[in-house]
Amino acid sequence: MKKSKLGLRVTFWVGGVLSLIYAFPFFLVLVNSFKPKREILQNPLSLPIEFTTDNFEQAIKKMDFFASLTNSVVITVFSVGALILVSSMLAYYLSRMHNKFSKVTFMILVASMIVPFQALMIPFMGLFAPILSINDRASLVFFYVGFGVALSTFLYHGFISNIPTELDEAAALDGASDFTIFWKIIFPMLSPVTATVAIVNALWIWNDFLLPVLTLDRDSRTLPLSTYLFYGQYSANYGQAMAGLLLAVIPIIAFYLILQRQFISGISSGAVK
Amino acid sequence: MHKGKNIKKFLIFASIPLSIFFIVLVVPFSQGLFLTFTDWNGFDFNKFVGLENYARSFEDERFWATLGFTASFVIVSVVLTNVVAFSLALLVTAKLRSANIFRTFFFVPNLIGGVILGVIWQFIFNRALVSVAKNYEWPEFFQSSWLNETDTAFWALIIVTTWQASGYMMIIYITGLMSVEQDVLEAARIDGAGALRTLFSIKMPLMAQAFTISLFLTLRAGFMAYDVNVALTGGGPFRTTELISAHIFNEAFVYGNFDTGQSKAVMMFLIVAIVATVQVAISKRMEVQR
What we know:
Chain A is mainly α. Chain A has helices at about 1-35, 35-40, 55-60, 65-95, 100-110, 120-135, 135-160, 165-175, 180-190, 190-205, 210-215, 225-235, 240-260, 260-270. Chain A is about 80% helix and about 0% strand. Helix content of chain B is about 75%, strand content about 0%. In chain B, helix 5 packs across helix 7 (about 150-180). The longest helix of chain B has about 35 residues, at about 60-95. The interface between A and B is large, with 85 and 98 residues.
């Protein structure tokens, strides 16, 4: 009994120290974002002595913070929404049709998950230059749906296969069309997977860098992209750079703290299925 | 009659997602494969050149150096991330009131994309660590930036990658640990198995699926790493810390070698596909049927 108490105490201290190590980079960004440059050079570890918010004003202006934030939100929301819509329907179709076509299609989808984007990006740019010049944000949403549909369909497929078909048949006998059956009966039952699909895709799309760097123009930059470019340009101005980084980090951490439970269960059921 | 109904079903449910998938993934993939056999310059091609682009990629010493660097990066980051993640999972599943807070701390780096984490750590390595080491007269080793030397930059990449990815994998391992039934653990305890024995002989075999998934995800992420690499070292000094993904990007979009760039991308795909398939096949065999 006594031994296990000691064990718990050791665990507590190890966990505490590790937590501090994991949080340390964010602590550095936080304290330095409120300091003038001179103080950062003298001691990056200390709390701010001469507290200033100038860095934030400058960073918000120079990295077009609100415009990039809006771009990120719009692109993420539309991509995730579209992915939920199309992949749930596709998964329903594939799991209810028991023929060769549906089996082969499902296999191709699963196999495609192994293809790295790097193997497509070079022809990609040539192929899609025309549609990118029309509207790069809408094109990006289109690309995200294309890249995300395999995993999302896979997640939905596993869940829908466990819903008994008697349910569909009963509704069909009552005269409901396929479309109504899906949206009125099946889709409401899918909310646990929908949460998983939403979180896994939102994390990926929100943080994606390579695709936006290749496809987006100046006014459509997402938050990671404009933060990176801002940092590259003003990295000698540490205070502003830190303020920019802090601003970029805040939205997603806030979002996580609100939806913590959904995030964790979304990730665990998404992976172990 | 029946056939008409099936076609209608297909049109409503499957036609849109499948065409988008086809346009975005299948078309560029096939075209990319096709173009590696031509003298393509990014806009058009004149003739087929057979395997010449592949031969030229093979002769490129820089490419081999990149592959070597990527291989070491993948091996070290996969091992370290999984060891750390599994230890963290054990730590936060101990019956401790603060476990939830710890879990949040370990998980947060994951929420933030590689570019932003990369530049945060760039500041730490280039600026914060150097200035602290000078202020407190730490050993010479810490007084200059780790990012200026290939070897230390490698470890900087590993540290950042492990720090970022371990929280996500921890969640997967927690799920695995939780899936081990209580009565099995109870039986082991009655039979006199200690904590370590239970861990190695009961828990780990029963949660083998979590290892399969976590290894697969970290392997794939290791081969495809781009953001952290670009933001942290930018491939420097002298392109020696370029991982395969950044190498292909630069080859095509910076140096304009679209033909060899694409053939290297196809080789990268083959490597990822083979390694991932072998890993999943081996891991699957270790899984216990329940």
